[in-house]
Write a structure and sequence with these properties.
Layout (H helix, E strand, L loop, with lengths): L3 E5 L4 H16 L4 E5 L2 H4 L5 H4 L4 H22 L4 H14 L9 H11 L15 H15 L7 E4 L6 E3 L9 H15 L19
Parallel strand pairs: 1-2
Antiparallel strand pairs: 1-3, 3-4
Length: 209
């Protein structure tokens, strides 16, 4: 079993920043991480996008689902170890290069897969519902572990029976010793059986560099 499960949606900027921190932690402190899926489109499918979200969010969340479908195909066909490089590639395109629409349609996704030297025909999964049950099961698992009413990312310690939580939501991904210090603090809180929530609404804008 992995040491940690990290549930992500490529559309979420906060999930992206936290994932980069997680990657930085792994450089300093190797662990086994399973990069699982949580779809913002699926967990919000009962909401009215016109009323509950800013303009354009429905397409943002749908794009996230399309890319998760391809990630699920990567996991099924190539193995879980190759999911993170795919997340890194599409996340860089979306959040760092600020070019999310380049991933709308098969050509852009095929280009990403080609650069990774993955089979380009996996891009076809974006427009297929073949892996939706897998993504929905992962999403429901993440929600159930946290008690619902959460977003992305979700981190689970010592899965499947260890504690899970939404976040941490951070605006910048620390590196080196700072990354490990934050990880140790999160572990201390996250694995305390009596800890439930620590939250504040003020936050800086996400930094993607």
């Amino acid at each position: 079993m992995p040491d940690v499960e990290y549930f992500w949606d490529p559309a979420c900027p906060w999930s992206w920043v936290t994932s980069r921190w997680m990657v930085n932690v792994l450089v300093e402190q190797p662990m086994e991480v399973d990069w699982r899926f949580i779809s913002l489109r699926m967990i919000n499918e009962g909401k009215d996008y016109e009323q509950d979200f800013p303009e354009g969010h429905k397409r943002v969340h749908q794009r996230g689902l399309e890319l998760l479908r391809v990630a699920a195909a990567v996991r099924a066909e190539l193995g879980g170890d190759l999911v993170l490089p795919f997340y890194t590639a599409v996340g860089t395109r979306i959040h760092v290069e600020k070019d999310p629409t380049s991933l709308d349609g098969p050509a852009g996704i095929r280009a990403v897969l080609r650069d990774l030297r993955y089979p380009v025909d996996l891009a076809g999964a974006a427009d297929s519902e073949e892996y939706d049950d897998v993504i929905r099961a992962d999403s429901e698992d993440a929600l159930e572990r946290c008690g619902g009413n959460i977003g992305t990312p979700v981190i689970s310690f010592l899965p499947p029976d260890g504690p899970s939580f939404f976040g941490p939501v951070i605006s910048r991904a620390p590196k080196g010793r700072e990354a490990v210090e934050l990880w140790n603090a999160v572990c201390t809180l996250g694995t305390n059986e009596f800890f439930s929530e620590l939250k504040r609404s003020t936050r800086g804008r996400p930094e993607f560099d």
